[in-house]
Design brief:
single chain; 348 residues; alpha/beta; five-stranded parallel beta sheet; two-stranded parallel sheet; 47% helix
């Protein structure tokens, strides 16, 4: 929508991971170095963690763009809410192998045959597991067992585990010692600093033909960093909205106040409507005094909040009495003349 307004060839701040826009911050360059080192070893596990939106998937896809499909056959798993058996099926499926209506033993056999055939063709197999923080311990162990496929001199399967920081807790839990011993490279991808955030914005704009229109003031850049914390996905979301506002209001320069207005709009959009908001909890009140069966209630002695429960209790007793009387009357009416009735207590 705003691309032509600013003379851009495409949207610069899409949310989906796109290696075309890869920006090499200090953290991303270092993480890339760890990935490349791990791949050069050709075995074991590589672990990359980072906050939501830190650019982990973009990092991996950028690495894949550098690899030749004639050298690497890769499979990518995103759905990680699986048990161990489902995980094996998912791995087999990700490599393009049949997986339905077969036993676990057959799945393992098919996977091993595929890995050995790939090795004979001079290709290495790489499994990328995204959202690793959702993996159950049994699922992690199943993935570790797959690393046992090997020839006399090499492993047949290498695995990347990509996830949020919580996965490090799983990795360092007592039952994960064998997995830790097979991790050959690990890196935590942190957010960008203020200067990198500014360069990141300009990099993405320049990638789609930016010639200085629109312009962001220093204050605008400071406000963007303060709101996003240097998390790439948050930067993309906010900057996309800023450019949309600029298009709608015919703006070619953004100040700190303009960024603040967009942030305010976003905040309002995520507010819960009053009609959908949960009702406030009632204020605590003193416990009501329970009335004795024959006690008289004096409404002047207690506030309304105290008398209401007592009145409800009194009404319930009255309703029970009325029901009992009605039942007795029904029995009297239904009893033939001269027969014993509920009110006739003769024992002769």
């Amino acid at each position: 929508m705003y691309e032509s307004f600013y003379g851009l060839s495409a949207k610069p701040f899409r949310l989906r991971p796109d290696p075309h826009f890869f920006f090499g911050s200090k953290g991303h360059k270092r993480a890339m170095a760890y990935l490349e080192y791990g791949l050069s070893q050709g075995e074991g596990f590589i672990v990359i963690t980072g906050e939501v939106g830190a650019g982990k998937t973009t990092l991996v896809r950028n690495l894949f763009n550098k690899l030749s499909s004639e050298q690497i056959v890769a499979a990518h798993i995103v759905n990680t809410h699986l048990d161990s058996d489902d995980t094996l099926r998912m791995v087999v499926s990700a490599f393009g192998l049949p997986y339905e209506n077969v036993s676990k033993a057959d799945l393992l056999t098919r996977l091993e045959q595929f890995l050995r055939a790939s090795d004979q063709q001079g290709r290495r197999a790489l499994l990328v597991v995204d959202e690793a923080q959702n993996l159950k311990p049994g699922t992690v162990e199943e993935l570790r067992m797959l690393s046992n496929f090997q020839t006399d001199d090499k492993c047949l399967l290498q695995t990347f585990l990509i996830g949020q920081p919580e996965f490090r807790g799983t990795l360092h839990s007592p039952g994960m010692q064998q997995l830790r011993q097979r991790v050959i490279a690990s890196y935590h991808l942190g957010p960008m600093d203020a200067e990198e955030t500014r360069l990141y914005i300009e990099h993405r704009l320049s990638t789609v033909g930016w010639k200085g229109d629109p312009r962001f003031s220093d204050g605008a850049h400071d406000a963007i960093f303060a709101y996003t914390g240097g998390i790439p996905r948050k930067v993309n979301t906010l900057c996309d909205r800023i450019l949309l506002m600029g298009f709608l209001e015919d703006m070619h320069a953004f100040e700190e106040s303009d960024v603040a207005n967009v942030i305010g709009d976003i905040a309002e959009e995520f507010e819960v409507p009053l009609s959908a908001a949960p009702a406030p909890a009632p204020a605590a009140s003193p416990a009501p005094r329970r009335a004795q069966p024959d006690a008289e209630l004096d409404g002047d002695e207690l506030p309304l909040s105290d008398t209401s429960p007592l009145l409800d209790e009194r009404m319930m007793r009255l309703e029970k009495s009325v029901v009992s009387v009605l039942n007795i009357l029904k029995k009297i009416v239904a009893t033939p003349a001269g027969a014993n009735s509920p009110l006739n207590h003769n024992n002769d």
